[in-house]
Design goal:
Length: 107
């Protein structure tokens, strides 16, 4: 894709121009949400590690996801899907709601 093509506005299903926003087309609220979820996953994992003596690789295996994707969620370079968030919570034996920040996010 050339730079000229990349600068063209995207079009919605209705033909309206949709401006590109932030990193990977995410809004500021999306990014704040990912950061808060990542912090909550990491904090819950640390508590889980202290309780069980297992590490991040073990948690990823129990949740049925790859270690690298779990690490990406914690660093907030990706936002987790609802299914993966539920899998992570189930593997740690905590309610999935504990990993979700209040809505709307601060910021």
């Amino acid at each position: 894709m050339t730079a000229k093509q990349n600068n063209r506005p995207r079009r919605s299903a209705y033909g309206d121009a949709v401006p590109r926003v932030g990193r990977q087309g995410k809004t500021k609220i999306d990014r704040i949400w990912e950061l808060e979820v990542g912090e909550r996953i990491r904090a819950a994992r640390f508590a889980w590690e202290r309780r069980t003596g297992l590490g991040i690789v073990d948690l990823a295996e129990l949740a049925g996801i790859s270690y690298s994707i779990l690490y990406c969620y914690e660093r907030a370079s990706r936002g987790p899907s609802a299914i993966n968030l539920a899998k992570i919570a189930a593997a740690m034996e905590i309610p999935a709601g504990r990993l979700l920040p209040p809505w709307p996010p601060k910021g």
